[in-house]
Design brief:
Length: 445
């Protein structure tokens, strides 16, 4: 009997506590004259009698703040009954029809809550955004701050919740306030990495999409505190990249004017591979896969696709030309495939990608080295320059002249020659008298 009474008392006590809480903590509706008392609260209960009173007020032509108040509590009544669509209509009517009343902000918050309840998180986020920046002409700044705080918490909760990829893209287009964009872009990366990791499909474009999203995040938010999480996701994405760790690609010209240089490069690479494979079992040996760079950037791109997507090489030596490297880099970036070019000289390649490397001097490096040797080591103050009339030659001459001038010297004569020329007698005769006199040599302490 005692146990029976204890079991019966449990629900009674719980109900009593709830009743005391609602009576003591929830505002008494009859005393609520403005929205500040109920703004942002979900524990307000509207009785059937009160619902009839508010309906009667509207039927009798209530307007202004009184009408907004009646509409708000009718909306709450529908909300507490689980009629979310009907509740949303009341709150929307207040938000649109009674701006700057205080009830409008309370209704916007409730609209966001309603949208959450009907599983429409993207539209809920849009509503919460409207409340985060306080409005100067609302009744109470303190209440604005509280509502903004609650909306900020709700925004982060929804972003970290079960948003779909489509919903994230919609919110990026909306867009959200800047303070939430790193979280939103991080969510996008998480969704793409999860999808790529779960696919298990070799060569899938999902991996590429994930890496592109990671690169986009790092570009937009280089100093974000979410960087550690992005790095963790990048490591997960790396595991989803299909790679043959024993395959190395080589892109070089097999025909045309650069075929000789290409053949030398192929022989050198093969020699290095043979030395690395010496003594290894056939299953452990590295294989070198060679593709033609061709004559156009399209040829180089086609070869890169074969190596990276089809052969799944762990890295690529080449291409040789700067233009071909620029064309191939987007694919290499997407698949995190390192490129090592032995000849690409363009200065703008220096920081174009963390996956691009080269083993050659740039025009600027060469020009500076020559000018420094002439003026600093040989103590010459006046020089003449002779260069091939090609894009490379003209750029080298300009860089050399710039460095000479920077060091206080003078380029007294600048002469070009046709590429492929072998007779320079007339040119050197024309340069007579331009050599600097020993007496003019600069002395550096």
């Amino acid at each position: 009997m005692k146990n029976l009474l204890q079991r019966a008392a449990g629900p009674f006590v719980a109900g009593l506590v709830l009743l005391l809480y609602l009576n003591g903590c929830s505002p008494k509706i009859a005393e609520v004259k403005d929205a500040s008392t109920v703004e942002g609260r979900l524990d307000v209960s509207v009785s059937p009698e009160q619902r009839q009173e508010f309906s009667l007020e509207l039927q009798q032509g209530a307007n202004g703040l009184k009408a907004a108040r009646a509409l708000y509590f009718l909306g709450l009544a529908e909300f507490q009954d689980g009629h979310f669509a009907e509740a949303g209509k009341y709150f929307q009517k207040i938000a649109l029809g009674y701006p700057n009343s205080g009830w409008d902000r309370a209704s916007i918050f409730m609209m966001a809550v309603v949208l959450e309840r009907i599983n429409d998180p993207s539209r809920a986020l849009v509503q919460y955004q409207r409340l985060i920046e306080p409005l100067s002409n609302t009744p109470t700044a303190a209440v604005e701050g509280e509502l903004s705080q609650e909306s900020r918490k709700a925004t982060l909760r929804l972003i970290n919740g079960p948003l779909t990829e489509e919903e994230v893209d919609q919110l990026i287009q909306y867009p959200l306030l800047p303070e939430f964009l790193p979280n939103l872009y991080l969510k996008r990366v998480q969704l793409l990495v999860d999808k790529a990791s779960a696919s298990g499909i070799s060569g899938t474009a999902l991996v590429d999409d994930a890496f592109l999203a990671i690169d986009d995040f790092n570009h937009r938010f280089p100093d974000s505190p979410e960087k550690k999480e992005i790095d963790r996701l990048a490591r997960l994405a790396d595991q989803a990249v299909p790679v043959d760790k024993k395959a190395l690609g080589l892109i070089l010209p097999l025909g045309g004017g650069d075929a000789s240089a290409g053949e030398q490069l192929r022989q050198g690479a093969q020699l290095a591979i043979d030395e690395a494979n010496e003594g290894l079992a056939p299953a452990d040996q590295i294989k070198l896969i060679v593709e033609d760079e061709g004559q156009t950037t399209q040829d180089a791109m086609a070869s890169a696709r074969k190596l990276i997507l089809d052969s799944e090489v762990i890295g690529v030596i080449g291409p040789m030309s700067s233009d071909a490297c620029i064309a191939v880099l987007p694919l290499a970036n997407a698949r995190r495939t390192p490129l090592l070019s032995p000849y690409a000289m363009r200065p703008d390649l220096a920081s174009v990608s963390p996956y691009f490397f080269r083993n050659c001097l740039t025009l600027q490096n060469e020009a500076v080295a020559m000018a420094d040797h002439a003026l600093l080591a040989m103590k010459i103050t006046r020089v003449a320059e002779l260069y091939p009339d090609t894009p490379y030659g003209r750029a080298l001459a300009a860089a050399f002249q710039s460095r000479v001038t920077e060091l206080g010297g003078t380029v007294s004569t600048s002469i070009s020659y046709t590429s492929g020329s072998s007779d320079f007698k007339d040119i050197f005769v024309g340069l007579g008298g331009c050599e600097s006199d020993r007496n003019e040599r600069r002395r550096f302490g």
